[in-house]
Amino acid sequence: MPFPPSEIERLTDLQRARLLARDQAAMDALVRAWEGVESAVERDMLVAAERARLRGYTSPADLHNDRRYRDLLAQVRAELTRYGHDATDTITDAQRDAARAGLTDAQDAIAAQYDGRFSRLPIEAVTNLVGILGDGAPLREVLVDIDPRIDDRLAQSLINGVARGKNPHAIADEMGTVFGTELLRFLTIARTESIRAYNTASQQQYKDSGIVTGWQRRETKDRRCCTACLVMDGTVYPVDTAWHDHVNGRGTMVPVLDRVPPRQTAWEWFETLDEVTQRDILGDRRFELWVGGYTPTAFARTTTDPIWGASLGVTPLRDLV
What is the pTM for the complete model shown? Predict the structure, then answer.
């Protein structure tokens, strides 16, 4: 039987909802700005597709010998660089708002469990979280660094379309889809880094408070929750343990003082689901391993990513069996 929501759980659920709403607003702004980038290149993609069909191009080398196609690539790179600068401003603002909210939300979460005075960090203490990635790299430097593979992917998309006899509009649409994968990179960085700033600011406040002894991982109890987050929800860490999550993670932390507030964990919620849903979330093989006696935490591991730092992830099946 699940525990009724405690005051701290209701408070942190509200804080999480506000965090995700701010995150979505930043994502929406990035998507709206991307529409202008697409508009700037879509006409030239159509022209490139028409020329490739008319001239019978059969390889990327044919394209790279075409001046108009080289002009298209130059425009693509220019638009991506411009967008990278604009996205940096949007994401930096989101990080700043998230860090401030992480600090004040942490103070409110402590106050909800403790009536006395405690050390409160000033807003200025979390300014170092803004404008950088998890590994300390400057955000702008990363966002304007164009993936060199975009040239080859666009060329291959165009040549494949010509080879299959597609019309120029269909080919241009496929090129647009390839180009659109660049937006996913920006959105991934935006979500990952704003939520990291929020949680890191919270952890700094917990550590500085003088009364918080640890923090508890809080994950969303829904079917979108990945297996690693599902099994690690509710885990309590020492207060000086840095926040770590996977790319696009939605987890947050709750301060632990003298006791851990009782609550239904994500795994306990998972155990209430029907078998079809459980298999859908875990996958058939992990479901069978769990039923066969595997401890759920075996499905999660922490690795070090060169960009994102310490990252929570799902243990590959090859490492389980």
Answer: 0.89
Boundaries of domain holding 262: 215-321
Pair (168, 67) in one structural domain? yes
Query: In terms of domains, do 37 and 117 share one?
Result: yes
Same domain, 197 and 251: no
208-245 confidence digits (pLDDT tens): 999 999 999 999 888 888 999 999 999 999 999 999 88
For the stretch 83-123, pLDDT in tens is 999 999 999 999 999 999 999 999 999 999 999 999 999 99
Three-state SS for the chain is CCCCCCHHHHHHHHHHHHHHHHHHHHHHHHHHHHHHHHHHHHHHHHHHHHHHHHHCCCCHHHHHCCHHHHHHHHHHHHHHHHHHHHHHHHHHHHHHHHHHHHHHHHHHHHHCCCCCCCCCCCHHHHHHHCCECCCCCEHHHHHCCCCCHHHHHHHHHHHHHHHCCCCHHHHHHHHHHHHHHHHHHHHHHHHHHHHHHHHHHHHHHHHHHCCCCEEEEECCCCCCCCHHHHHHCCCEEECCCCCCCCCCCCCEEEEECCCCCCCCCHHHHHHCCCHHHHHHHHCHHHHHHHHCCCCHHHHEEEEEECCCEEEEEECCHHHCC
